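Q: What changes when 1,3-dihydroxyacetonephosphate is included in the input?
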Amino acid sequence: MAEPIYRFFENHRILEDFRTSAHWLAFRGWSEAAGGNMSVRLELPEDISPGKYQALPLQVPELAGMGLLLTGSGTRAREIGIDPVLHVGLYHIGDDGESFCWLAGNKTPTMELPAHCAIHNQLQQVRPEDKAIVHTHPESLIALCHVPGMNSAKSISDKILHLQSEARLHLPEGVGFIDHQLPGSLELGQLSAKAMSRHHLVLWQYHGLLGSGTSLAHAIDLMEVFEKCAQVYWRLRAAGIDPEGIAVKDIIHTLQAFGQLGRF
Ligand code: 13P
Ligand code: ZN
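A: The predicted holo structure follows.
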């Protein structure tokens, strides 16, 4: 007999990725209160018996028939880290690519549902190996958005990622940037999907960070690299230094040595 869907959900190894990632976000203080959310797309068993479908805020043809794990709206990272079954929901994206249906776990998807859906739809086409999306609120990166001139992908990538020797190796394309938008809006979601097609990380002005990876842990690795650079920046500024950063020729040399220059 087929495994019931709740057992498929509760026993899925990806819940461990949610558990450890949420714990880490809480431990780092990045996801204050109910800040931040996470999702992973996955294949579902053939024989699911879904209930009532509701309309998605956008069309996601690339996700038709797939499964989506989403953290619940208002859930706290520190509690997801203790009991992911209670705080993460499993959904089926309808075969029409414009509806979804709850299957197991938490029943109230994150308010950033438009962004998670739009980005997964995009990633399925451009980086299918990136199955995980994390959004969180790291302090040093939000603070950067208040510095005059730090208001574009290029200004932030060139200034901040060039403060540590290996940062650009992790993020050769740099990071994306989106001007302040209404949290949870479709517009934020669509702009994010566009920016994420070129970047693994996108900074939401005055709001927080968005990352993709092959796993939630991988997305957080990249976020940590970027946040570390921002911490170096703030430490230097506190010492009265506005850093020049590593010379571009040295960044290029490093990327060349590791075969990553094509992504610069
Ligand atoms: P949710 O609790 O609905 O996921 O919202 C948190 C958040 O950070 C919105 O941007
Ligand atoms: Zn947020």
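Observations recorded in class: The longest strand covers residues 99-105.
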